[in-house]
Amino acid sequence: MATNAVKVGEKVNVPVKQEAPQMTMKDWINKSQGAIAKALPSTITPERFTRMATTAVTMNPDLGKCTPASFIGAMLQAAALGLEPNTALGQAYLIPYNNYKTGQKEAQFQIGYRGMIELAHRSGEFQSIEAHVVYENDEFEYELGLDPKLKHKPAMEGRGEPVWVYAIYKLKSGGYGFEVMSKHDIDEHRKKYSKAKSSPWDTAWEGMAKKTVIKQVLKYAPLKSEFVRAITDEDVTLNFKENVVNDEPMIVPDEDTRYATENAVDVEAEVEENK
User: Fold this and answer.
1) Residue 35: its pLDDT value, please?
2) In angstroms, rounded to a whole number, what is the distance separating the alpha carbons of residues 217 and 178?
3) Which has the closest alpha carbon to 72: 93, 94, 90, 104?
4) Beta 240-245 vs 92-99: how paired, if at all?
5) In whole angstroms, what is the distance from residue 73 CA to residue 267 CA?
6) What pLDDT is attached to residue 166?
7) β-strands 162-171, 126-135: how paired?
8) How confident is the chain (275 residues) per 10-residue block, as mean pLDDT?
9) pTM higher than 0.70, yes or no?
10) CB-neighbour burial class of residue 139 (10 A; exposed 0-12, middle 13-18, buried 19+)
11) Residue 148: its pLDDT value, please?
12) Phi, psi (deg, nearest 5) at residue 87
């Protein structure tokens, strides 16, 4: 009987199983285009949003080091709200931070103050909504009670350090409201809710302070839509996980997140009807 013998010293070619190359964050973004398309409103195309997400990773390499599930989850939160992440518009941010409990770097979604204003205007209730920083050399006074008043006259030069931040809105129905926070209150809010060591608070304190006080004032606004009311809550984290579907690696939401993202589109339609 014939046998296949191998002589000592003879070279033998052994087939080696090639491992699939590790997926980059940009690969995950491209793979998630279907989910992005479902989450986005008609005002932003999936292609444009994908380019914004890819540019965000290019501009901030730490985002590429985040867990794919956290990054895609943060990206889909921006998509569901129809906000542009990490662009000059300042509507929303994808922020990398170290999760010391898991030892991994994760991405977190944050709304910018311009994004907050954009979402409020979509409700169709507001005539105007704005926020301002008051500096120590400005003229500023406000009163609460049955006849609330607010007066702010900025100094022409040498305004000094920030001391107060306020937001005010006017409704199309004629109503109005305002909220005032001290710099100390703003900084305490940051300590409580900001997880990242490097965040927009470090590079855009005024914008983040305005966002914080806008959130507070919107809690008292007569908003009809749950979609808009949701932005007054602290940034909600949607939970996603890596899974294998039909032998393909995928990012999928857990049950609570799936319900929230699927219903975000329905509520957005409700906002359009209320305009």
Assistant:
1) 85
2) 6
3) 94
4) unpaired
5) 19
6) 97
7) antiparallel
8) 53 51 84 86 88 92 90 88 88 87 88 86 87 96 94 95 96 92 93 69 85 88 63 51 43 42 34 36
9) no
10) exposed
11) 93
12) -120, 175
> How many Cβ atoms are within 10 Å of 114's Cβ, its own excluded?
18
Q: Which H or E element spans position 179?
A: strand 176-182
Token pair listed for 221: 């606004």
Quote the tokens at residue 169: 């809105």
Task: Tell me the backbone φ, ψ of residue 263, rounded to 5 degrees.
Answer: -85, -15
What pLDDT, on the 0 to 100 scale, is given for residue 199?
67
Q: How far apart are CA 218 and CA 215, in angstroms?
A: 5
Helix 255-274 / helix 68-81 crossing angle, nearest 10 deg: 20
Measured in degrees and rounded to the nearest 5, phi and psi for residue 228 equal -75, -35
Specify the pLDDT at position 39.
84
Report helix, strand or coil for 134.
Answer: strand
Question: Residue type at 201?
Answer: W
pLDDT recorded at residue 58: 92
Q: Distance (Å, rounded) from C-alpha 262 to C-alpha 240? A: 14
Mark out the alpha helices in 82-112 (DSSP H runs): none
